[in-house]
Write a structure and sequence with these properties.
four-stranded mixed β-sheet, RNA-binding, 115 residues, 3 helices, 21% strand, alpha+beta
RNA sequence: CAGGUUGGUCGGGCAGUCGCGGCUCCGCGUUGACGGGGUCGAGGAAAGUCCGCACUCCAUAGAGCACGGCGUCGGAUAGCACCCGGGGCGGGAAAGCCGCCGAGAGGCGCGAACCUGCCGGAACAGGGCCACAGAAACAAACAGCUACUCCUCCCUUACGGGCGGGGUAGUGAUGGUGAAACGGUGGUGUAAGAGACCACCGGCGCGUGCAGUAAUGCACGCGGCCAGGUAACCCCCGCCGGGAGCAAGGCCAAGCAGGAGCGAAUUCGUCUGUGGACGAUGGGAAACGGCUCGUUUCCACACGUGCCCUCCCCAACCGUGGGGAAGGCCAGCUCCGGGUAGGCUGCAUCGAGCGGCGCGGUGACGCACCGCCCAGAGAGAUGACUGCACAGGCGGAAGCAAUUCCGCUGGACAGAAUGCGGCUUAUAGACCGGCCUGAGGC
RNA sequence: CGGGGCGUGGCGCAGCCCGGCUAGCGCGCUUGCAUGGGGUGCAAGAGGUCGGAGGUUCAAAUCCUCUCGCCCCGA
């Protein structure tokens, strides 16, 4: 996923975490909030409960890679945060993709790629 | 070859597809949050942060004190308490089959390579402590032993002797306690004893010689006869150390607040110095309690309180009220200093750099030559999928066996964040050596 | 990146600086008494590798070194 689709600033994270809606899944938590930007921005996070630095990095890579083809299908003007949970360290890419699919559907940000 | 032990190297490979970050080049009817090409892109520990440096800022006349660290010898290094090579004192390791015991099984002792802890003041500069036990824990006398002497009783004609008790003196052999009790064995000696004296042994100190750069070792001689342990307790001696750290530091700098100026409008309203102190309330954050509420703590360029309250006049005891004067505030713009968010830099090719080869050194390491330029993020880039071999494991088949074939499985610990050197800790497995012991062959 | 602290029965803490004593205190737990029963009360009792490893010492929870885990502070 290219950096231009990434959520990077600390203030952005704070705003989404505070006033966004959250949707939980055993592997991932999705937090979404509308923004005034003309694009979709995604941030990923992994806390210390996920594991050591290797596992945290792996979890974030999985999330970015799984999210990459989905970004185009989401309506513009949304900021998303994906928070990794401990189970993600043993999950595969397809597991992660399924999890994200269901989360986005529940959030009403249904990808249109299967059309 | 087997067993033990130890050091080093590597720690996944190749190909394809998709993708990410840095640098660089190119393209354009769409100069953009664009498209494409090239190139580079994690570790031996990147980890822990236990030491040492570089670098930066602050402080600083010099010296000393305090505090902290280090402390065998020599070397290496920019530097380092931990590196390299030695020395001393321990602890472990167990091959060996040497010695002793045993009928044997076996036991005890001796013991290679190697691993490992410690190292100034041999605790006579001084202080402290050494629980319990014990008389006593550093210079002592409980029992005991010995001599002299006193008292009671007994034996004896008497001299004298004996049991018990007391006093004075000597003693450190014996006993018991303890982790530890002031060298050991044998003798001389004595009332009894004792390094009091003698021989040998152990240990200490001094001297000489030899080996070694030295620590130290060995040999010989002499000495006084012998000194408890603890400085990972204080202390003493020597050496070293100013403090903080890339969240160091430098540059730029929204917004808000502050200052200066320009300037519009109205005399309507409102306000009144500087600096500080405090926190009932309000705002924000967090925690706690079962509750729309409360408590506690914290934060600010927020707010308030009261001290205080521009000057003059009048009323009044004060609070205060009335009137006047001066100044400020109430739109916008420009500029100024500090500086928050944020950005750039430090910081990512020129270094105590990496690779190769040669030489010197036992080694840490050094020198010479040749070649190379080698991650640089900032919510944090190196990943995903597929295939193929390669080690390994499991199962099956063939074969006397070595081995071969097939299927399944499957590759640890772990992710740079200013950069180096050392240390420590985690780590599946693979490969290559060194040393010791044993067996066999030539 | 730097600094500081903590780890001791089930829980919360002493003891550590200056080594020795039975590792102590409160709550909790178990048993018994008392009550019709519960609580309260009274009496008795169990329960601790002092986070782990190594060292110094005659002797270590305490001193030294390494290590593991947790918490707090500084932009």
């Amino acid at each position: 996923m290219q950096r231009k689709f990434r959520l990077t600033r600390s203030d952005d994270f704070k705003r989404v975490r505070q006033s966004g809606r959250s949707y939980a899944h055993p592997l991932v938590v999705l937090v979404a909030r509308a923004s005034d930007q003309p694009r979709v921005r995604v941030g990923v996070a992994a806390g210390r409960t996920v594991g050591n630095a290797v596992y945290r990095n792996r979890a974030k890579r999985l999330l970015r890679e799984a999210m990459r083809p989905l970004v185009a299908g989401i309506p513009a003007g949304w900021d998303l945060i994906l928070i990794a949970r401990p189970g993600l360290t043993t999950a595969t890419l397809t597991d992660t993709r399924v999890a994200l699919d269901s989360l986005l559907r529940r959030a009403g940000l249904t990808p249109i790629h299967e059309a």
